[in-house]
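Researcher: Next entry in the queue.
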Amino acid sequence: MGKSVYVAAAESQSGKSVVMLGIMQLLMKNLRQVAIFRPIIGPQTQGEDHDINLLRRHFNLDIPYEDCYAYTLEEAQELINAGQRTLVLETIFNKFKQLEKRYDFVLCEGADLLSRDSAIEFELNMEIAAQLSCPMALVVRGVDKQADEILESTRSLLHLIHEKGLDVPLCLINRTDITPEEQDRILASLRSRTYPHPPLFCILPEETRLGAPTMEDIRRSLDGLVVYGSKHLDNLVEVFLVAAMQVGNFLHRLKPDCLVITPGDREDIVLACLSSLQSSAFPKISGIVLSGDIPLHESMKLLLEHWTGACVPIVAAKGHTFQIANAITKTRNKIDPSDQRKIHSAIGHFEQHVNSAELARRFVDLKSTRITPRMFEYNLLEKARQQKMRIVLPEGQDERILQAADALLRRGVADLIILGDHEMISLEERRLGLDLGPAQVVNPAYFSQLEDYVRSYHEMRKHKGLTYEQARDIILDPTYFGTMMVQKGQADGMVSGAANTTAHTVRPAFEIIRTKTAGATVSSVFFMCLQDRVLAFGDCAVIPNPTPQELAHIAVDAARTAAMFGIEPRVAMLSYSTGSSGKGEDVDKVITATALAKQLAPDLLLEGPLQYDAAIDPKVASTKMPDSQVAGRATIFIFPDLNTGNNTYKAVQRAANAVAIGPVLQGLKKPVNDLSRGANVADIINTVAITAIQAQPEKTS
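Model: Structure for this entry, 701 residues:
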């Protein structure tokens, strides 16, 4: 396998965007620099290409838009019609080769020429793939087809591709609505055939929510005006309902994720829809479209301006109700780059049905030896998925936690326990348009084993004078309750701190879970995701002024933590002096800690004392410590005290525009991790994945 693959479909509406997201996700886990390339993009009138923008924005690809394609549809057709087909192919080839020189891998997506003759279009895609010497990943459209029809069209397409001399590493039948038994029959039949290089055959069933339009798709198709609820335009629409009857006859017809279409002067319908969002007796609707080009009454506008309950988008559109309903049925859905929920669902759907390890083997011949930030973050989720852990989230009242939980569940990263009031979380779920159905919601006050938790905590702390009633009050605190769930084995790890302080997260862990061994040190590391590498900094959050013994344990634990996440440990014990160049109490502390760490882990690559520049810069290291295996190549930086570590990680974070993941706690018997109170949804997702990975060895031991 070379450095590229060409993804093509023989029909429109094949769901190729989902496949591109899934393949790019896989590539980014294994390679540092991946490019997206489309030989021919859609008409210029449609603006920038949807799939190029989707992949560039979601994966933060370092490639200019202009480098991602060779021709627009109009340009290519004009040249081909003028007899310049060879020039078109040559230009595509040259542009592709420029990308191949600069990137580890080029993911190509076939042209969608949108003509009536799909056979001619597919022929051109095969010709381009052959010119580029790209193996072809074939996407077969399965929706609205019987099993035998799918099997026959797949065989025919594979025959055409092999006649062109192209390898097919992946043959993916997408959007099928046939039974699992028919799917198995198709796969068995395809795998029984003899091919020069047998493809990996996969079937992705139809996922209706991926094909459902969002309210933004509908607003765009109607050229509508958002009257209210602009923050919820990513709500999915499964069905629509025309509401022209009285409220009493209308409400019982509501369905989950439905769009209500009603004339703009039916304020009673609008009020009934908004009220239904507050009641668990009715399904959650996705939005309201006001027809007839009738503006809302001023009093209704005033009500909406001060509405504090759950809401959905309200869009005003021109045209009568039938015209609007007809336009909505023709709305073509695309995965918007800003729609993180649908993107997570698409990638999760792909990963659920495709053997990613086997596909990576076919696509990626050489992995990068240096872990980049993108590889690090994507590998977190993949490693967590391989053995799902139960992670408890005590801060169920925080909408960032709920949004992260939605994404984690869609990707299948972990099984989640959310602490909080069931009704409140349900209302927030409806208000935010989330799907938390697979999560377990627990209210500590009504938990069946609450008394056992109270007794256990009282036994642990009664020597400190704690009474039973005090123990009850403390255990009802969600962070203490979640920590006890971990201790009791009803959860494998906990993530807290979005609303609580670090002390409030860490103190229960010290009291209940405790350290792995008596006298061991609980410390932390931050994973610092720089532009081209990932480093580990410790301790920057827990121990203010560690002793030499504690510093040694921090170094050894940090090396183990980093190795768990794919970072090759090269540990620098930092000081204001390198080698024997400086003297003083602070330097002596690091010298002693270095010696102790080498006794604890003799095979660990560890050096100290080192100044930061000597630890990270090969040129400085060649002067100050030329024979060191760590100097200039360090991946783990151990700071002599919390003051230095905390300030340095924040300085690097801001000055280098780095992503800081952590603090990741180490040294506890079971994993508990702290969030910054300024954490965003991505931070929470990463921290949950890290906690799950930390729990995996404990679960298998």
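Model: The first strand starts at residue 4 and ends at 9.
Researcher: Noted, moving on.
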